[in-house]
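This section describes the prediction task in plain terms. A model, or a person checking by hand, is given the sequence of a single protein chain and must write out its three-dimensional structure as a string of tokens. No templates, partner chains or ligands are provided. The sample shown here is typical of the held-out split.
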Amino acid sequence: MEDDAEDKRLRSLVAETPLADVEAREARRHSDALASHRDDLERSIRELEREQDNLLDRMAAEGTRFTNFYSSNPVCSPSRAGLLTGRYGARIGIERVLFPQDTGGLRDDEKTIAQVLKEKGYATACIGKWHLGHHTQFLPTHHGFDYYYGLPYSNDMNSDVPGDPPLPLMRNDDIIEQPANQDTLTQRYTDEAIKFIQEHKSAPFF
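The expected answer:
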């Protein structure tokens, strides 16, 4: 009788444990990954570090810190291609900055880190400047990212330059604002990043 009672109690405990909780714990075996790719900084890195010391120190303390790194190229498009694929821009046809009137972009046969992590169960998002092709087939959602919010190319590539369209702000594959209001863009990027992290905190994200 005691064995039966114990068996029933154990079954009850198992039944009360939501499957989602078990799956979430399994998913959390993978670490979250946050990559920040910055350019066009008008102030020195040292000035930025002084302002953000507390947050940067906390991220370093709670995560993994890498102190040696390289960029595959000094300009926008090739450096982003290198970051996402691990290959030099010259090897994948992105050797220079892409402009609004260009028709090319990151090819389908190039595998990105987002695609690799997505296969491992990660939720993936790209927030900010993409700059690897602005036509639909080249956008982040076609290269391993579940979600995209940002500018398809540099913020200074707009209708001030003859032949260029007003600067678009995109969500996934759709233009949601044109021209983009750059006065509020940084805050909106921040809000979108925080929202994505909060929505996917129970599973690994990139």
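For orientation: The two ends are 52 Å apart (CA to CA).
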